Amino acid sequence: MEKHFNEIYSEHKEFIWNITSKYFQNKWDREEAFQEIFVKIHRYLPAYKENGQNYLKTWLYKIAITTSINFFKKQKRVQMIKDVIGFNERLFFRDQQPSNETTMRGKEESVDYLLKPLNANQRAVIVLREIEGLPYEEISEIMNVNIGTVKSMLNRSKIKIREYLKKEGICNGRD
């Protein structure tokens, strides 16, 4: 089992780090959440049943997202914003191809900025659908909610982002 865990860690540490980076701007929090995720993966690995690589990634997503959400809430970082949005993350980055590390860092900071007004569950649904490109069914399974709830959460999250950008003077509400 230890060998299997080491393989999972080696193959998926960057994937898990990218998930935590969507939740935590503070490097310390990101590292804490990252460690907590791998502690849980190690703890639950004996119960994991191998059903192929896609299932493993879904299983890892589920642990990473759930742990990040719980850690996020535990740190009392959930931000409540009254307004809601309709913004597509992909449009925001349209035609942007990072050519160097600086451009990539700017893109990551932009994503952090867009996710700022969202609570943990809203961040999860935006990251899973708009950034990672997962289908509704897989998001539903990862978040333990039905597909209709995923779609509703996604819509509310987009509305919240649009209102936030409107408030910040970045868009006029129709973008």
Q: Give the structural class.
A: mainly alpha
Number of helices: 8
User: What is the level 1 CATH name of the largest domain?
Assistant: Mainly Alpha
- Largest sheet: number of strands, sense, barrel closure: none
State the domain count: 2
> What's the β-strand tally?
0
**Do you know the CATH topology of the largest domain?**
Arc Repressor Mutant, subunit A
Helical percent range? 55-70%
Low-confidence stretches: 76-108
State mean pLDDT (0 to 100 scale). Answer: 76
Q: End-to-end distance, in Å?
A: 50 Å
How much strand? under 5%
Which sequence of SSEs, written as H and E, runs from N to C?
A: HHHHHHHH
CATH superfamily of the largest domain: Winged helix-like DNA-binding domain superfamily/Winged helix DNA-binding domain
CATH architecture of the largest domain: Orthogonal Bundle
Measured on Cα atoms, how large is the radius of gyration?
17 Å
Oligomer: single chain
Rough shape?
globular
In short, what is this structure?
This protein has 175 residues and is an all-alpha fold. The protein has 8 helices and no strands. The chain has helices at 2-23, 27-44, 53-74, 89-92, 101-115, 120-131, 136-143, 147-167.
What's the layout of helices and strands?
Blueprint: H1 2-23, H2 27-44, H3 53-74, H4 89-92, H5 101-115, H6 120-131, H7 136-143, H8 147-167
